[in-house]
Each structure stands twice: as structure tokens, then as C-alpha cells.
Amino acid sequence: GNQEAGEMGLAAVPGRQATFRQDLAAAVQYARAVGCPRIHLMAGRVPLGADRATVADEMETTFIENLRYAADLLAQEDMIGLVEPINNRITDPRYFLNTPHQAAAILEKVGRPNLKLQLDLFHCQIMDGNLSRNLETYFPLIGHIQIAQVPGRHEPDSPGELNFLYIFELLESLGYSGYVGCEYAPKGDTLQGLGWLRSYWERQGLQHGGTSKAAE
């Protein structure tokens, strides 16, 4: 969509299906060029002036239609489509997709195996909390994890509500083998802000880069 015009994706926005398909085709070209097998299919915002409850059914129908189209196209490229709930309490009051429960219900209706949940723990904590149970419940649907401390949205070791040592151990125990995206705003310099990761590796007995010292 057109971010300058206030758009945050188009997949659930009625009447914008043609533009969504054009943008998706461009995204596939970029993903193919950089070797990225996953594309975030952004739902978009409730139209200005519209009541969320009034337009919810139409937006969900549009979302499901577009997700099926996207899944079929991405399957030809051996790619995965991701949907991400974004909290509407702090980050984006008008974003259509807000909770993992809503996302899971929509993915079930779409019924395509190459569509997955992009679970950002920052948004999930703000909307629902209960992260351990949510990770366990929705683990089969998860295609990508993103992290940030709550409420400041900074590094995982910055002051906040979340215990990321516990969360990382839980992800390992569940068998998560994908990437963890650092979807946060560094409090200072980006590289200095990655000090938490070096400390985590050392605590786990790993070399910088995640390789085992014993294996070395």
C-alpha cells in the first residue's frame, strides 16, 4: 500500500484487491532476488471513519480471498506467506489483525499449508499476555518469531515485562528452528545494542555466532 497515504498493507481492505495483487507480484520478485522464502502479507487498516465491528465481516472475507490467492502464487515459488497480528492498543489502533486468536481463526478458514503466523511477542504481550500458553497453543502455525521488550520496544535485556531467557528456552524446548527477528528500536547504537545476544551466547556456552564451544 501507500504508507504516505496512511496505508499499512492492503490484504484485508475491500476494493483494493487489484493493487494487492500487483504489490504481491513485486514482493515476490524482491524475495526471489534476495533468496527470502517468506513474505509478510499485511492486512491493512480499518478505513477512516468506519466502525470496526461494522466492517469486520467484509474485511475478513476480503482477507481470506486475498490470502488464498497469495498462497497459491507463493506455492509456485516455494515461498511461505505470513500474517502478523499488530496490537491496536498502542501501535496501530486501526490495524485489522490484532490477536493470534484472530489470525489462527483466519488461517484455518483459508486452509493453505504455506500460510503461517508471524508472532511478534511485543504485540502478543500487549494484547493478550499469557505468552507461554500462546506459544504452545499456536506453535504449529508459527512461521516466524519477532521480539522486543515491553513496553519500551527496545532490546530484550532492557527494563520491561518479558523474561527472554525463559522465552528462548521455551522456544528451544518446543523445537523452534526458525529465525528470531529483532523487531525493536535500539536504545543507542545498533551494534552495541546486540550486546544482549553476545551475553546470551556466552551464558549458553556458545561462541559468538551461536556455535558450540564444545563442538569447536
Report what the structure shows.
The chain has 216 residues and is an alpha/beta fold. The protein has a single domain (3-202), classed as TIM Barrel, CATH 3.20.20.150. It is 43% helix and 10% strand. The chain is built from 8 helices and 5 strands. Strands 1-2-3-4-5 form a 5-stranded parallel sheet. Helix 6 links the parallel strand 4 and strand 5. The longest helix has 25 residues, at 52-76. The protein is globular and about 50 Å long. The N and C termini lie far apart (47 Å). The relative contact order is 0.10. The mean pLDDT is 95.
Helix and strand topology:
Blueprint lengths: L16 H18 L3 E3 L11 H25 L3 E4 L16 H11 L4 E6 H7 L3 H8 L3 E6 L16 H11 L5 E3 L7 H4 L1 H9 L13
Parallel strand pairs: 1-2, 2-3, 3-4, 4-5
Pfam family, one: AP_endonuc_2
Keywords: Isomerase
InterPro entries: Sugar_Epim/Isomerase, Xyl_isomerase-like_sf, Xyl_isomerase-like_TIM-brl
Which percent range describes the beta-strand content? 5-15%
What characteristic shape results from the CA principal axes? globular
Q: Structural class, please?
A: alpha/beta
How many domains? The number is 1
How would a crystallographer describe the biggest sheet?
A: 5 strands, parallel
| End-to-end distance | 47 Å
Report the order of strands and helices. HEHEHEHHEHEHH
The CATH architecture term is: Alpha-Beta Barrel
> Which strands sit side by side, in order, in the main sheet?
1-2-3-4-5
- CATH superfamily caption: Divalent-metal-dependent TIM barrel enzymes
What is the CATH C-level name?
A: Alpha Beta
The whole-number mean of residue pLDDT values reads: 95
What proportion of the residues is helical, as a percent range?
40-55%
Tell me the radius of gyration: 18 Å
